[in-house]
């Protein structure tokens, strides 16, 4: 492993331990409060927004997704196709969900595949420059790179708790920086995107 990968692994471990230490009832209240950010995110009607089904102690974005749908957004969730690829399938309120592994769920193969215009991105850690540490599999980095290569760069909003911020994320060539981060403290835009 390279020194930056070793450091990322350690920063991931520390940030996830802090997140896991948050009170479950407090996390649930923070997730409900997050829905208030829908007005500030302010997607245009019919904007395709990818969310995610929360796993472990992640911020639950389902209330926010519901609020964004109420503002006219079309929702989708990631679906794992294989060990390297995710696609984003349309998420409809009454559609069945299937196990996607890792304790998460998503629409089955009958759901339409959509290209997100705006992505709510899960993460393990982030820094004040918009760099993120994912969970190590690179699914989101590859999915974002595919969208960029097709001329459809999405707006990237990382979703985390404040306690997941680290001083500096080591950068690797494949890493995709976030445009914004949404935590219980609100929506923060990074200087590089202004």
Automatic annotation (TrEMBL):
Q: What class of enzyme is it?
A: ligase
Pfam families noted in UniProt: 5-FTHF_cyc-lig
Q: What is its EC number?
A: 6.3.3.2
Q: Does the keyword Magnesium apply?
A: yes
Name recorded for this polypeptide: 5-formyltetrahydrofolate cyclo-ligase
The entry's family comment says: Belongs to the 5-formyltetrahydrofolate cyclo-ligase family.
Molecular function as annotated in GO:
5-formyltetrahydrofolate cyclo-ligase activity; ATP binding; metal ion binding
GO process terms (BP): folic acid-containing compound biosynthetic process; tetrahydrofolate interconversion
Q: Reaction catalysed?
A: (6S)-5-formyl-5,6,7,8-tetrahydrofolate + ATP = (6R)-5,10-methenyltetrahydrofolate + ADP + phosphate
The record ties this protein, via PANTHER family, to: 5-FORMYLTETRAHYDROFOLATE CYCLO-LIGASE (PTHR23407:SF1), ATPASE INHIBITOR/5-FORMYLTETRAHYDROFOLATE CYCLO-LIGASE (PTHR23407)
Its lineage reads: Bacteria, Pseudomonadati, Pseudomonadota, Alphaproteobacteria, Hyphomicrobiales
Q: Which organism is it from?
A: Nitratireductor pacificus pht-3B
Q: Where does ATP bind?
A: 8-12, 132-140
- The highest taxon in the source lineage is Bacteria
Q: Does the keyword Nucleotide-binding apply?
A: yes
In terms of InterPro entries, this protein maps to: FTHF_cligase, FTHF_cligase-like_sf, NagB/RpiA_transferase-like
Per UniProt, the keywords (alphabetical) are: ATP-binding, Ligase, Magnesium, Metal-binding, Nucleotide-binding
NCBIfam families, alphabetized: MTHFS_bact (TIGR02727)
UniProt cofactor(s): Mg(2+)
Quick one: which residues bind substrate?
Answer: 58
């Amino acid at each position: 492993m390279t020194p930056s990968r070793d450091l990322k692994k350690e920063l991931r471990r520390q940030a996830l331990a802090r997140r896991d230490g948050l009170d479950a009832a407090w996390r649930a209240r923070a997730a409900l409060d997050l829905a208030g950010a829908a007005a500030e995110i302010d997607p245009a009607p019919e904007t395709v927004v990818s969310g995610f089904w929360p796993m472990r102690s992640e911020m639950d974005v389902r209330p926010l997704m519901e609020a964004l749908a109420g503002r006219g957004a079309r929702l989708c969730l990631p679906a794992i196709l294989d060990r390297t690829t995710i696609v984003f399938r349309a998420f409809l309120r009454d559609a069945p969900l299937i196990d996607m592994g890792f304790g998460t769920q998503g629409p089955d193969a009958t759901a339409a595949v959509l290209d997100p215009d705006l992505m709510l991105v899960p993460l393990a850690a982030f820094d004040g420059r918009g760099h993120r540490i994912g969970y190590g599999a690179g699914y989101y980095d590859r999915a974002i790179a595919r969208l960029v290569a097709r001329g459809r760069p999405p707006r990237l909003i990382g979703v985390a708790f404040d306690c997941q911020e680290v001083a500096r994320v080591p950068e690797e060539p494949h890493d995709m920086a976030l445009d914004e981060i949404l935590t219980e403290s609100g929506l923060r835009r990074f200087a590089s995107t202004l």
